[in-house]
Amino acid sequence: MQSVRPVEKWRVLAFTSLGHLINDGWTMFLPLVADIIANEKHALPIAITLILVSFYSSSALLNFYVGHLADSRGSQGTILARGIALISLAFLGFALALAAPTNGFLYFLVAGVAILVGFGSSSYHPVGAAIIQASFGPGDSGKALGFNGAWGQVGAAVFPPLFFALVILFGEGGLLPVGEEYALALAVMSTIGVLAAFAIWRGLKDYRVARDPVDGGRRRGMKEALTKGILVLTVLTFVRSIANTGVSAWLPAYITNVKGEGVGSTLGLTLAVMYIGAIPGQLVLGTLVERLDKRYVLGVSSAGAALAVLGYISTGGYLGLACITVFGFFSFSSFPTLLSLASDYVPRASWSAGNGFVWGLGIMGGNVFGPVIGQVIIGEDYSRLTLAFVVLAVIGLIGALATPLLAKAKKTKG
Question: How many other C-beta atoms are found inside a 10 Å radius of the C-beta of residue 11?
C-alpha cells in the first residue's frame, strides 16, 4: 500500500488543514443557523434541538463505520473530500428552510438537512486524524494534530462574521425581500465549500495510509479497534462532550434571548472570540500531549472549560468575552488531545476505526445529549438557559475528575 514520503507530509498537512477549516467552519456554524431559522420563522426552541440532535445523531452513527471503511479500503483522501463536498451542499437546504412556511414541513425539512450535514461531517475527524498520524508518526503527531485543529477553529471563527458580512452586503438597498439575504449568503458559502472540496480531492486523491510492517498488510476488523483503552476513553469523551457541546450549541440562543442582544454583531463577535480562543488552545494542548501525561492534559482542559462557563454566566462585558474565550481555548481541544490518546490504544491499521469510535460515539454521541439536556431544562422558556449552563458545567467538572480512571496509554503498533 502506498506510503507518504517525508517530503510530502507538509502537503498532506496543508490539504487536511483546509478540510478541517471548512468542516469545522460548517459544523460550528450550525447552532447559529439553527438560532436564525428559529427567530426568522418564529419557531419554538424545539426547532433548534431538532436540528442539533439530527445532526449529531447522524454523524455519531457514521463516524465509526467511515473510519473502518477508510482502514479497509484506503482512499482516505477521496473519502475526506467527498465529506466536505456533501456538508457544503447540504447547507443549501437551510437556505430553502428560510423560505418554507412555519408548519410541520419546516421541522421535517430542517431535520432532514441536518442529517445530511451529519453524514458529510462524519468522515473528517477519524480519517483526517489517521492521515496526519500516519504521515508524522508518534513523535510529531500531537503538534501536527494541534496545528491542523487550529485551522478548524479558524474556520469556526471566520464563518459567522463572513456570513453576517454577506448578509449586510446582500441586504443593502432593500433589493431582496426580508430574509432572502440569509439564503443567498448561505449559497455563496456553500459554493466556497464545494470548491475547497475539489481542491482537497486534487491534493489527496492518491493518498493511502501505509500499513505497519508488523501487520504484514493484513486488514483489521472493527473488533480490533475496540480495545479497553478505547472504550474507557470513549465514555470519558462522552461526558466531556455533553458538557461542552451543550453550552456551545445553546450559546447563540443564550446571547439572543437571555442577554437580549438579538441576531446581530454582538452574537457574531462572541462566537468569533470563542473560536479564536480555540486556535492557540489547539496548538498549546497539541504540544503538551507530547510532553506531559495525556490523561491529565485532557482533564485540565475539561475542568478549564467548565470553570470558564461558570465565569461567563456570572459576568458580562469584556470580562464575559474573556471567559468565553477561555472556554474556547479549552473546550475545542479534542482533536489533538483525544485522538492523540486514541492512537495509543489501537494498532496502526485500525487508527481510523479507533478514531471514529471515540469521535463518533464519544464526541458526537455526547453532542446529542448536551442539547437535549438544555432543552429539557428550558422547556419553552429561554430564561432557564442560565440554569442549564450551570448543570452542564457541573457535568464537565465531573468528567474532568474522572479522567485519571483512564489507564496510562501504552503505544501499540501491531
Answer: 15
